[in-house]
Amino acid sequence: MTRRAYFDHNATTAARREVVDAMLPFFRERFGNASSIHFFGQENREAIDAARASVASLLGGEPEEIIFTSGGTESDNIAIRGTARARRRVSKADRIVTSAIEHPAVLKTCEDLERDEGFRVEYVPCGRDGVLRLDLLERALAPGAALVTVMLANNETGVIQPVREICSLARPRGIPVHTDAVQGAGKIPVDVNDLGVDLLSISAHKFYGPKGIGALYVRRGTPIEAVYTGGSHECGLRPGTENIPGIVGLGEAARMSKRELPREMEHIRVLRDRLERGVLERVPDVEIAGAGSPRVPNTSNMVVRRVEGEALTLNLSMSGFAISSGSACASGASEPSYVLLALGFDGAASQGGIRVSLGFANTAEEVDAFLEIFPRVVERLRSLSPLA
To answer: Quick one: how far is CA 321 from the chain centroid?
Structure first.
């Protein structure tokens, strides 16, 4: 193995050097608890406030609408559980409307609320293009709907969902809308007012920030209840001593993302398109899931027939290329991708899906090296596969 190329940025990203540099003083020199009224605490309260303003600026919201969390999964849980419970208490609404292709952080939360708390969940299907069926979603917005939760961009295919249109349907009916924007923030412009959402989740490590920190946008006036008990931190929605180094890192990642996004989007899109063209020219029986739909510019889901995605992932790793077979949260699972099944691929094809997700540091030389290796790996595996 003479090279190592990282093509798995939807799983996680390396923290930018500027992000790490911004965080370092808060481990030793600036270690105070931000709830303390002495100067050690108050200088860190100022750092949290500055980071909150940076995240709000990235998302187009107001600083007081930003709640810091441990990441996308916790943000999704607070948004869905807190809003659904508040809506049921006030209006008796007890249905949650979501899609069949959500991240497990959303799907499993909805399943839990249905099983343990008596909520009803409606799963709106998507088409072969990977886009949620708006006509079927509109039907689901009948009286009794407590919340709509639909992701902004799918973590496996990168397909962008019609969140703006969903909000235009839900708002006149008084139904709050939450979007999991974990795979959108830092890859495409995200503006909560342009979208019209009431709640939005992000995670720092998806756009060159640290792991273990995220944020939840909650529009002012949105009904939501706390899901934890404890102190009054983060407007009472996320009690516990703040992760100040992480919050500072998220703030710096947000600030840099807003500045660098236009240039990085175009660079990554060119690489992604170069990679897809090369694969389709060199390898037969490959389909790009959601290729005809709007997608975040870094993501390509290649359905390679007659090969298992996990075998492809392992063999490419041995050749120096880090990719993923489906979602990182399902790595190691041999089951077909539920996202690809929802798009209409059969079970065998859904096991052949791999995800390549690029970042700003990737190069054309890395893409070309991948295109040299990939056809040989597929040919070898197909010669050994019982699916061939």
So the answer is: 22
